[in-house]
């Protein structure tokens, strides 16, 4: 037994060692990914459950690694956040998303684009100016941009976050709380923050109709949204039953594989046509 135990220990050390090496390699590759044009955005439609119309899209980042293929954002975003490269990458995302929004508007399909804003980006001194400058440069009206921020963004310096989000909101940008209920939720910041949207995380939607706790959590978020006058959007909607339940319960917006997975800009345009022509 002792023998086996020590083998386990060696295996454990070896795998940590490998994990560290892989992370270091990814970190190195990440630093060059922008310069080598390895990033692109995909867009997932957001649907109004009452009007059954596509009201916007969430832009999601994809990294096509030259040797390893597609690396999921959950793998590389935390690395980019810990070494600060997320600032430059996030600015690229914003720029690309605004460029796309301008293009769609010029083609007669003005859509609201939701962009994920890392807590690290929000801590940047110049973030408000950077966002507004990007909108201006692409001539995108601020009302067409939504920023998705997580609860962790409010934790390090609440007043600083309030101040910046207020300035962004006053300019016309809408703010959504992403992954709502998964972090250190506090009703204090909901009161202080100029937020207009709550996103129910997909972990509560997956078993929405199977697990009673998830049903209650989703209901609670929908009711909270109603009483605070916030639009609630459910993410990760995969079935017609989930969609039906959520719309009956009063959740206004949804996104998920049931409607569409995230799509390239081109595929998104086709989807938009076929969805509204049904
Ligand atoms: P998120 O912001 O919570 O995004 C939702 C994730 O759920 C996306 O994963 C999306 O592809 C996935 N999803 C959408 N519909 C469904 C569904 O019906 N079922 C399931 N199982 N999943 C669904 P993705 O694209 O892999 O992104 C993962 C996370 O990476 C995002 O979570 C976000 O936190 C982060 N991320 C992605 N792009 C960016 C970015 O440009 N900037 C920053 N800071 N973070 C990003
Ligand atoms: Ca998001
Ligand atoms: Ca989420
Ligand atoms: Ca997230």
UniProtKB/TrEMBL annotation:
Gene source species: Marinobacter oulmenensis
Domain EAL: 23-276
Source domain of life: Bacteria
Name of the protein this chain belongs to: cyclic-guanylate-specific phosphodiesterase
């Amino acid at each position: 037994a002792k023998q086996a135990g020590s083998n386990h220990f060696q295996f454990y050390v070896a795998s940590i060692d490998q994990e560290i090496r892989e992370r270091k390699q990814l970190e190195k590759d990440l630093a060059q990914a922008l310069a080598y044009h390895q990033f692109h955005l995909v867009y997932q439609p957001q649907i109004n459950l009452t009007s059954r119309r596509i009201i916007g899209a969430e832009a999601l980042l994809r990294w096509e690694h030259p040797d390893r293929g597609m690396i999921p954002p959950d793998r590389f975003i935390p690395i980019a956040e810990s070494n600060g490269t997320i600032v430059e990458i996030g600015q690229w995302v914003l720029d690309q998303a605004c460029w796309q929004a301008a293009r769609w508007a010029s083609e007669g399909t003005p859509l609201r684009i939701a962009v994920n804003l890392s807590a690290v980006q929000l801590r940047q001194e110049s973030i408000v100016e950077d966002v507004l400058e990007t909108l201006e440069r692409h001539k995108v009206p601020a009302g067409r941009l939504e920023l998705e921020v997580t609860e962790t963004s409010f934790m390090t310096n609440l007043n600083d976050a309030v101040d910046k989000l207020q300035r962004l909101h006053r300019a016309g940008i809408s703010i959504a709380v992403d992954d709502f209920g998964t972090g250190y939720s506090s009703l204090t910041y909901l009161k202080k923050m100029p937020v207009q949207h709550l996103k129910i995380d997909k972990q509560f939607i997956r078993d929405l109709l199977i697990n009673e706790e998830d049903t209650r959590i989703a209901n609670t978020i929908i009711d909270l949204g109603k009483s605070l006058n916030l639009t609630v959007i459910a993410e990760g909607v995969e079935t017609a039953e989930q969609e039906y339940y959520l719309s009956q319960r009063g959740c206004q917006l949804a996104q998920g594989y049931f409607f569409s997975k995230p799509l390239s800009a081109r595929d998104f345009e086709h989807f938009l046509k076929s969805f509204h022509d049904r």
